[in-house]
Amino acid sequence: MARFIFITGGVVSSLGKGLASAALGALLQARGYSVRLRKLDPYLNVDPGTMSPFEHGEVFVTDDGAETDLDLGHYERFTGVAARKTDSISSGRIYSNVLEKERRGDYLGKTIQVIPHVTDEIKDFIAIGEDEVDFMLCEIGGTVGDIEGLPFFEAIRQFSQDKPRGQCIFMHLTLLPWIKASGELKTKPTQHSVKELRSIGLAPDILVCRSEGPIPQKEREKLALFCNVRPDAVIAAQDLKSIYEAPLAYHAEGLDQAVLDAFQITPAPRPALDMWEDVADRIYNPEGQVKVAIVGKYTQLEDAYKSIAEALTHGGIANRVKVNIEWVDAEIFDREDPAPHLEGFHAILVPGGFGERGTEGKIKAAQYAREHEVPYLGICLGMQMAVIEAARNVAGIARAGSEEFDHEAGEKRFEPVVYHLKEWVQGSHRVERKLDDDKGGTMRLGAYDATLTEGSRVAGIYGSTQIEERHRHRYEVDVKYREKLEEAGLCFSGMSPDGRLPEIVEWSDHPWFIGVQFHPELKSKPFEPHPLFADFVRAAKETSRLV
Ligand code: GLN
């Protein structure tokens, strides 16, 4: 049966709880254990699928088609364990489950209360698949003291009581602010945060303290004394130049040892960290640099394209180069010539997105990349824009566009080269959707197979003609334009197994121009860079040598 590690946060948000959890997961794996990471989010949205990327960062999609918080991306990147639907839940989902059961009469007319009905729902969720792994790491979103978080804190308190002693531990992440004027590291906010936790019945076993510098012994002892933890369970988490150093840095600070001590696992198996040492070595000792432009819409918030940025870093790891990303707002090209903005980049990436705004700019970016032979990777909307560019400027379909934009505008202006997908095949059954379904849950989501053309560039890159990648979209390139576009030179080198849905396009006579309908970035890891990103960065490296 799994041991449980509950990870909570205090003092301020954005301390990197997700990253700390992910790095701890990686360290436990390095010691030979199996792990699963889970995120419990207190917000009331039923899932993050409809939350604005401006506000919440990217939506991370799992193989089984869940739209989740971007922290699940961190979990996967550090542990390689594919997240599932059952690894992410919000208050909204919990309440909606409880209310659904109430409507069905499952509670037999009882009064429905936060305790026990909501807390039981949370506890059932935490326990899913507990027999499958050695350690289950559950991160509670938000900060201790938040009203929305209370049922979660209560649920994990009860959960640890329900389990045999020693099967659950609590790790609390806080901030030690540095007061410049007095030259002091302050422990008081952490003390208060722990006091808050204790008032709701939770006593942390481990404190992870974000601080700008190392924690002096005196402060460490003070924290241990006032917060009732062992001095060696006070772990300093200093800012790192690369997140991928986190497993090594936490190990050096004794985090994994403290966790195993808290579970009284002795002797602890020694960790094998060579994989992480190699990753850090490649990141910190690059042999060159490349400059990649990401031409997108949500460029003010880098988290909106989190997995893409990480996958590019992984591509850099594969090629021992540092990838410098510059965010270019696609809307600029609505007004201005892209050339001066895109000159000097060794590669161009157009990411996914929704809505018409900025799309003409993305089309121009694709055109620029095609005409100037700059490596281009178009992801989802970025692929659709590349196809529209090809249709308009090479295949002579002057009014080519996407139905998405016509739907949005409420008028028919374009020839729908990209059209709304109303039904598709998932495994052995057919899925049907109407456009006026609820906004949430009307997309083609999760892992789907694709068949690649023998001898195509992508088949070479993947080293296979059968692939499986994750999707999140409503619109598709219409296969009826295939012949016309292929005559123009745009090869449809990846298709759904039934041949109806274009999955990959590539310009056969371009050094590197690939558009994919899926999201390869979601499956890339630092220790296993995604082949498309590895090869895209290789192509960028080649371009950098030419200029
Ligand atoms: N908006 C496009 C669609 O729904 C692309 C989506 C995406 O880029 N993820 O098909």
Automatic annotation (TrEMBL):
CTP binds at S13, D146, I147, E148, K186, T187, K188, P189, T190, Q191, K222. Mg(2+) binds at D71, E139. It is an enzyme of class 6 (ligase). Residues 302-538 form the Glutamine amidotransferase domain. The keyword RNA-binding does not apply. GO terms for molecular function: CTP synthase activity. Keywords: ATP-binding, Glutamine amidotransferase, Ligase, Magnesium, Metal-binding, Nucleotide-binding, Pyrimidine biosynthesis. UTP binds at S13, K186, T187, K188, P189, T190, Q191, K222. Pfam families: CTP_synth_N (PF06418), GATase (PF00117). Belongs to the CTP synthase family. Catalyzes the ATP-dependent amination of UTP to CTP with either L-glutamine or ammonia as the source of nitrogen. Regulates intracellular CTP levels through interactions with the four ribonucleotide triphosphates. Homotetramer. This is CTP synthase. It comes from Lutimaribacter marinistellae.
